[in-house]
Amino acid sequence: MNRIIAIANQKGGVGKTTTAVNLAASLVATKRKVLLVDLDPQGNATSAASITSPRPKTLCDYYFEGAQIKDCVYSSKDGFDILPGDEGLIALEIAIRNDNKQGFLAKALKSFSETHNYTIIDTPPTLNQLTIEALFCASGTLIPLQCEYYSLEGVAGLMKTIQTISDKNMSTNRVLGIVRTMVDMRNNLAKEVSDELEKHFKDLVFNTLIPRNVKLAEAPSHGLSGIKYMPNSYGAKAYLALAGELIRRVEYV
Amino acid sequence: MNRIIAIANQKGGVGKTTTAVNLAASLVATKRKVLLVDLDPQGNATSAASITSPRPKTLCDYYFEGAQIKDCVYSSKDGFDILPGDEGLIALEIAIRNDNKQGFLAKALKSFSETHNYTIIDTPPTLNQLTIEALFCASGTLIPLQCEYYSLEGVAGLMKTIQTISDKNMSTNRVLGIVRTMVDMRNNLAKEVSDELEKHFKDLVFNTLIPRNVKLAEAPSHGLSGIKYMPNSYGAKAYLALAGELIRRVEYV
Ligand SMILES: Nc1ncnc2c1ncn2[C@@H]1O[C@H](COP(=O)(O)OP(=O)(O)OP(=O)(O)O)[C@@H](O)[C@H]1O
Ligand SMILES: Nc1ncnc2c1ncn2[C@@H]1O[C@H](COP(=O)(O)OP(=O)(O)OP(=O)(O)O)[C@@H](O)[C@H]1O
Ligand SMILES: [Mg+2]
Ligand SMILES: [Mg+2]
Question: Which of A73-77, A168-172, B162-166 has the highest mean predicted lDDT (pLDDT)?
């Protein structure tokens, strides 16, 4: 059974890609088979996975050129498989809208329902058709959030949007939880925002806090997750703990 | 003469809004009349300007309801005027595309050519029609950039896109420069990326570095810029210096 998890937040720079890559690597460390899907035209998750093929096939080759979806999957040094992304996704986003092919991603990922235990989808910082495709096919959505004022402002709206999309499309997606990222508990702002989150979204806030840790920001330049690059760093240990908490929330309900 | 400056970078969370708000406040401190335009449906710049009117008119009221553009301008505690933004901008983005009204923002801002010295436009973290409207009407674009790996990856592509948009639309827009934001020179990653930037984009990198300073992240929750909230903080002083450097690059060419 393949559990599909979308990582989404239209606020930029909150740690969506870092969470997608390190959660995928952490789930691999628990002996689960994981597929990472990069739906961001910036292709950050793809560069963190350091695929060796010079021009890897993406969802665009599957949609426009009729390539087999399995030919668009590559392995990473971290042990998860990846469906890469590049700026061609900008044209795909427009085509899905114009051709009325909503639900295209859910169909494409059906091919992996027996081959992987988890599929993690990294999304761009905007609620466009690509992000909606991810929210539609996911069985759960993780919301990474920086403990800062602008991030807090947008979260209630985002939860409402996710709810509306699942109601409209009759999909099973629900918000799995909010993950506090880049947390520096030495400053009051983070403590204040974190307290606000616990007050307003009590059961939804993951207990695991991801600390600000430069090793997580260095890892992608080595084509690795933080888990593989510096397994004993605070950042890596936090993502391993998050994977444990996610497994408890998803597998032992 | 009203110089229109777009603040753009499709990478999320690099400090676009923080730069737009604090640059606007710094230019006011040099006795210039400034208009801030919020083109991000998240409305972060609008909340930083703490407008007192309960439901301010936005560009949507001007486009859909025929409101006068001057009725959509509000004053802020920082002394700059603001054309606010809210999630209604999502519908505006679609309408401009569907109605083929490209260039609509340039026409709207003509009304301010004699009343303001600078217009600063904050854009969302995506190259959609709203961002393209800003790039089309701007005479210069500032690119805020975090000195981290993912941010560095996207910059060359962004510069190319800005060049293509101004060639295609015969607009006068050019990249004014790259502003390094949230810089923590204690860590090697920032130094490495900063050196790479200076090597590849020599004349384009602003000398002023904006340090990571929590006062800048606290200011918006008080409805103020960092300049007004904590004028003696490192962050505020850096933005005042940036305004000086911008004036030299724009007014004394
Ligand atoms: N816990 C952390 N500690 C230190 N740096 C981090 C951490 N998490 C993320 N970063 C860094 O912060 C920046 C933003 O993170 P990331 O790119 O993962 O966010 P994002 O939400 O995916 O951004 P976008 O909205 O552009 O997709 C990156 O340079 C990343 O390396
Ligand atoms: N120099 C700085 N020091 C400390 N915090 C900062 C600094 N600049 C920005 N921030 C904080 O970092 C976060 C991201 O900045 P900001 O929201 O301005 O980026 P953005 O590029 O506008 O994001 P988006 O892509 O979502 O529009 C915000 O919470 C902001 O308060
Ligand atoms: Mg990302
Ligand atoms: Mg912003």
Answer: A73-77
pLDDT at position B165? 87
Q: B130 in helix, strand or coil?
A: helix
Q: What is the dihedral of CA B162, B163, B165, B169, to 10 degrees?
A: 140
Question: Which of A195, A222, A223 has its CA nearest to residue A209?
Answer: A195
Asked whether the beta carbons of residue B47 and residue A124 sit closer than 8 angstroms, the reply is no
Residue nearest to atom 11 of ligand 1 (CA): A217
Atom of ligand 1 nearest to the CA of B150: 29
Q: How many CA atoms lie within 13 A of B211 on its CB side?
A: 15
pLDDT for the residue B54: 86
- Tell me the pLDDT band of B120, cut-offs 50, 70 and 90: very high
Nearest to B70 by CA among B83, B80, B60: B83
Q: Which tokens belong to A251?
A: 């597998």
Distance from CA of A218 to the nearest CA of B (A): 7
Judge whether residue A238 has pLDDT over 80: yes
Nearest ligand 1 atom to the CA of A181 is 1
Scanning the structure block, which residue is given the tokens 């993502």? A239
pLDDT for residue B171? 84
Residues of chain A whose beta carbon is less than 8 angstroms from a beta carbon of chain B are 10-14, 17, 42-44, 47, 87, 90, 124-128, 146, 148-150, 153-154, 157, 187, 189, 214, 217-218, 220-221
Contact A146, A152 (CB under 8 A): no
